[in-house]
Amino acid sequence: MSDDAAVTPVFFLSDSTGISAETMGNAMLIQFPDLRFERQLIPFITTVEEAERVVAILDEAADGPTTPIAFTTAATDEIREVLHRTRCPMIDFFELHSSRVEAILGKPAARIAARLHGVGDVQRYNARMAAVEYTIEHDDGQSVRNISKADIVLIAPSRCGKTPTSMYLALQHGMFVANYPLVEEDLETTDLPAPIRHLGDRVVGMLSTPARLSEVRNQRRPGSRYASLEQAQYELRRAEAMYRAHGVPVVNSTTRSVEEMATTILHTLRSRSRQSHPSQGTSNRSPS
């Protein structure tokens, strides 16, 4: 993919948070790795006037040099009707699937906004929010309080992708995730760091390539020892030795999306749990 390749404007539209539109839209876009996309989320389109303003934005994009695309999960008929007036090509997930679901269930959908993402199931929604709060508290080793409650402990040298993966697991799957950075003193030995040593069956290690890790670190601290290729090589080599010593499953973040890494982590821990405890799952909290 060349740097001067055309960029396709992509819009995610919703009368709620837009999480579903983004998730399903990106699941399609990932199948086009040679294309470049400029993504824009427009959530909470709750009035006809707001929908008309969105149509103006989409039409302006449609007049540009590259054909845009919009994904929508808007459920309210009056909002959807306005959005469909745009000249921008539209993928309407609600229109594509709602009539089929209605036919199967033998009942018309309510077509009310904000019925997505588990909001209608208060217990499930609260469980996800509790997972997010826990994961924020235990991000980047900030706290080890209640770390034993973690369903998953992600470890890796700095800037290997622990935080976005943790947050995705919490928000999308309701998992309590702690992520713990491996600093130089941790890497002097192959022992797991003391605060998480008793949680070995929940630990997943993350890696990157030295070149990619150095590149990401240089965006944060350009020209520093921390960002040097030599330091990245050292930390990744020592982390890999630690993972090997304890049979820690490993996910490489270099070419994988957050969604792919989260799925791999959940699958790996479920498989390990089934082997150790055939009658039990990975967690008392069922992933959403």
UniProtKB/TrEMBL annotation:
Coiled coil: none
Alphabetized GO MF terms: ADP binding; ATP binding; phosphotransferase activity, phosphate group as acceptor; protein serine/threonine kinase activity
Superkingdom: Bacteria
Nucleotide-binding is among the record's keywords: yes
HAMAP family in alphabetical order: PSRP
Protein purpose: Bifunctional serine/threonine kinase and phosphorylase involved in the regulation of the phosphoenolpyruvate synthase (PEPS) by catalyzing its phosphorylation/dephosphorylation.
Protein name: Putative phosphoenolpyruvate synthase regulatory protein
